[in-house]
């Protein structure tokens, strides 16, 4: 997506791409179904906590640390090997995202920088700031060309300026573009996938679409699979209407699957099985 697209609200224009209005409506129906569940009236905090855990596990899986849910739930040491550090980073981001909702509308770049700091949990010159000329990216290979630092900085500035100015586009559309653009740019030297998915969550929650954070899109992305994730992202990076629409629809399906996951948790709690 070019953030210099014509018009004051380029996000809104994307909401009319083929299949996107239907995807937006389908997501709203899925989210409403979770919120209408009788368990949500009494135990929404439990559902939110479980969604955060499952979302973190799924986000880590997409970055190559595909642990069983019970292993994530049981484990206390997340600093001993690369996969454990990835899971630990995902868990920290899941916990931090809710604390950054009020900052996002004023300064999305501050939030992205903070997310990277939280994910890395270490002091280093490259942590918490976009990469500069000569720096590469150590993330899992997505099979995409890496924009140079100058292009990345310009596009990131354009994206965050648009976000700060607000949009009338559906939250799903904005969340999908934020997610896709961050994956395309990979602005940090590490942890870009985790940061991108955390930013998607912040948009979905902060917009009011999923205010209690009970529809973890990360679960849906993982369920759809890394291959489909990469394929949809490759379409987004082409910048064509079909490619961008396909990515938004992919993100919509991920949110629906996340909502389905939490509906299942609600029903298990209702049965006394969880």
Automatic annotation (TrEMBL):
The segment(s) forming the Fido domain are 107-250
Q: Which domain of life is it from?
A: Bacteria
* PROSITE patterns the UniProt entry points to: FIDO
Q: What is this protein called?
A: Oxidoreductase
Task: Read off the lineage from the record.
Answer: Bacteria, Bacillati, Actinomycetota, Actinomycetes, Kitasatosporales
């Amino acid at each position: 997506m070019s953030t210099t697209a014509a018009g004051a609200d380029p996000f809104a224009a994307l909401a009319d791409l083929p299949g996107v209005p239907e995807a937006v409506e389908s997501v709203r129906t899925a989210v409403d179904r979770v919120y209408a569940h009788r368990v949500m009236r009494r135990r929404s905090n439990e559902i939110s906590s479980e969604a955060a855990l499952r979302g973190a596990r799924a986000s880590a899986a997409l970055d190559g640390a595909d642990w069983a849910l019970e292993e994530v739930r049981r484990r206390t040491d997340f600093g001993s090997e690369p996969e454990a550090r990835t899971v630990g980073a995902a868990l920290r981001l899941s916990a931090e995202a809710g604390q950054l909702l009020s900052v996002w509308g004023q300064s999305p770049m501050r939030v992205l920088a903070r997310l990277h700091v939280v994910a890395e949990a270490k002091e280093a010159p490259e942590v918490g700031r976009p990469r500069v000329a000569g720096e590469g990216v150590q993330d899992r290979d997505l099979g995409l060309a890496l924009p140079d630092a100058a292009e990345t900085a310009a596009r990131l500035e354009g994206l965050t300026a648009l976000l700060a100015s607000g949009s009338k586009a559906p939250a799903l559309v904005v969340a999908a573009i934020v997610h896709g653009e961050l994956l395309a740019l990979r602005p940090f030297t590490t942890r870009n996938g985790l940061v991108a998915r955390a930013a998607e969550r912040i948009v979905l929650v902060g917009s009011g679409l999923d205010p209690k954070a009970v529809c973890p899109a990360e679960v849906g992305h993982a369920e759809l699979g890394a291959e489909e994730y990469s394929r949809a992202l490759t379409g987004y990076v082409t910048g064509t209407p079909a490619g961008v629409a396909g990515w938004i629809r992919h993100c919509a399906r991920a949110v629906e699957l996340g909502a389905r996951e939490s509906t299942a948790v609600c029903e298990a709690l209702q049965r006394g099985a969880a």
